[in-house]
Amino acid sequence: MRRRDFIALLATAAFVRLPAAHAQQPSSPRLVGVLMGFAESETSWALVREFRGSLAKAGWKEGSDLRIELRWGGGDVHRIGAAAGELVALRPDVILAQTTPVATALAHETRAIPIVFVTVSDPIGSGLAGSLARPGGNVTGFTFVESSMGSKWVELLKEIAPRTERLVLLFNPATAPPLRFYLPSIEVAASSFSIKTSTAPVHASGEIEGVIAALARAPGGGVIVMPDAFTAANRDLIIALAARYRTPALYGNNFAQSGGLISYGPDFAETFRQGAGYVDRILRGANPAELPIQLPTKFELAINLKIAAVLGLTIPPNVLAVADEVIE
Q1: How many whole angstroms separate alpha carbon 30 and alpha carbon 49?
Q2: Burial class (CB in 10 A: 0-12, 13-18, 19+), 280
Q3: Is the separation of the CB atoms in 126 and 104 below 8 Å?
Q4: What is the pLDDT of residues 105-140, one digit of tens each?
Q5: CA distance 137 to 128
Q6: What are 128-132's contacts with CB under 8 Å, separation 24+?
Q7: Cα–Cα distance for residue pair 110/87, rounded to 1 Å
Q8: Which helix (H) or strand (E) holds 71?
């Protein structure tokens, strides 16, 4: 072979190899958005770590083939709306949405980007999906509680505070799931114990003390702090006010570890692990419209004996026996 032909052959081979070498270069990391409805706190960060850890176990490596953009809603509907717009503008491959207001805000922003929600109470009533078995759109996920949960809250509060005659439901209508989802089961249970119920919608933290102070003016008052991004953001304030006014309070979110009397609800960490599972499946090609919305499978009862003693309450042995966590 002549030298000139040999050089031409080498040049041709190099040219042919270039596309193959280029094809072997790593592709851009997949982008996952996370919008937390709760305020930034150690408890909330623990949930984010559960999500990240579950994705890592599924084989995703942050900084290599995965990037996560995190935003905090802080229980504020306006802040949630702004954060939802920011995340959608980044055009992520999928978004994890925590709480009903967050899922709703994101669903209003996009019908194309897959959304996986966690800690949402009533996805059908909230208009997020057409059915549990087949959501049919870009939104799916894991519900927070069943509607019958309300009766369990009333029963538990009556058992630990048997003198309860009046019950107030504390929530923010701008950030809480629709109250009609829980109310029927709450009213049925309250009626069976001859307890009068009333709702106490609040829109700002400055309104909370007035509700609890009014309830404490007469004996027999109790409060159910509804699962709500706003009440979660004001957890410490609500717990302090309940203690100051010596008012028995049951929490739909797990506030017992932070000084609340008693809480009953699903295992939040488990829902974030499940959410990561759906995010993983969607990143690998699954269609959110065909991923069924799943009901909670694990619930936790936590009781704070120290606060019970401060309120002069004795927790019945049968309640202690079924508690998942007893704080002394």
Answers
A1: 18
A2: buried
A3: yes
A4: 999 999 999 999 998 988 988 899 989 999 999 999
A5: 9
A6: 128/103, 128/104, 129/293, 132/292, 132/293, 132/294, 132/295
A7: 10
A8: strand 66-72
Pick the CATH number of 30-145+267-298 from 3.40.50.2300, 3.40.50.150, 3.90.79.10, 1.10.290.10: 3.40.50.2300
Sketch the domain layout of the chain as residue ranges: 30-145+267-298, 149-266+300-327
Per-residue confidence (pLDDT) for residue 229, from 0 to 100: 87
Mean pLDDT of the chain, nearest integer:
90
Measured distance CA(227)–CA(150) in Å, rounded: 11
Whether 149-266+300-327 and 30-145+267-298 are alike in CATH topology: the answer is yes
Tens of pLDDT, residues 33-47: 999 999 898 889 999
Q: Is residue 245 pLDDT above 90, yes or no?
A: yes
Query: What tokens were used for 185?
Result: 């089961």
**Residue 69 forms beta bridges with which residues?**
33
149-266+300-327 placed in CATH 3.40.50.2300 = yes
Which tokens belong to 298? 């694990």
DSSP codes, 145-183? --TTHHHHHHHHHHHHSTT--EEEEEE-TTTSPPGGGTH
Amino acid in position 31: L
The confidence score (pLDDT) of residue 254 equals 81
pTM for the complete prediction? 0.83
**Span 268-287, average pLDDT:** 96
Overall average pLDDT of the 216-234 stretch: 93
DSSP character for 290? G
How many beta carbons lie within 10 A of that of residue 112, not counting itself? 9
Closest CA to 229 of 136, 117, 125, 110: 117
Tokens of 147: 């509607």
